[in-house]
Amino acid sequence: MEYLLNPFKPGAGRIPPELAGRAQLVAEFRQMLFQARETGEGDRPWILTGLRGVGKTVLLNQLGREATELKLMFVKVEASASAPLANSLAKELHLALRRVLSTSDKAKRSGTPRRVPCAPFNCG
Predict the structure, then answer these.
(1) Residues 80-106: pLDDT tens digits?
(2) Residue 63: which H helix or E strand, with range?
(3) 80-84, 105-109, 116-120: least confidently modelled range
(4) 16 DSSP 8-state letter
(5) For site-directed labelling of 55, which of 4, 25, 26, 102 has its Cα 20 to 30 A away?
(6) What is the pLDDT of residue 118?
(7) For residues 31 and 71, is the Cβ–Cβ distance under 8 A?
(8) How far from the centroid of its chain's Cα atoms is residue 117's Cα?
């Protein structure tokens, strides 16, 4: 009998060996990010839905990596019944901005110009 390995390895947010069936969605998201970065105008919000275990968190993490590759700020916030979403979002955005500004300050000291994009939101 020949044995085959099952590529499905369940676990919240774990990176699978293959992000099967998501290439078109990731390409569309990357195009939207590029467009927003270049024009400064965001797109309509995206809503990802699905049953538990279908890969929503894995997909969101991949979309975050796509944003980071395009030199865009990315924050991850999880909704919780114990804390208002606005507070969690403000905290994560504050921390992300501090990281970007800290990097920008280092670049200024080294004489290297650095663009600080904040798409898909129009921050200017």
Answers:
(1) 899 899 999 999 999 999 988 887 666
(2) helix 56-69
(3) 116-120
(4) P
(5) 4
(6) 54
(7) no
(8) 14
**Helix-helix angle 56-69:23-39, to 10 degrees:** 40
Residue with tokens 């024009």: 39
For 98-124, what is the HEC assignment?
HHHHHHHHHHHHHCCCCCCCCCCCCCC
Global pTM reads: 0.67
Q: Could you tell me which residues are beta bridge partners of residue 80?
A: 83
Burial (CB < 10 A; 0-12, 13-18, 19+), residue 120, is: buried
**Amino acid occupying residue 78:** E
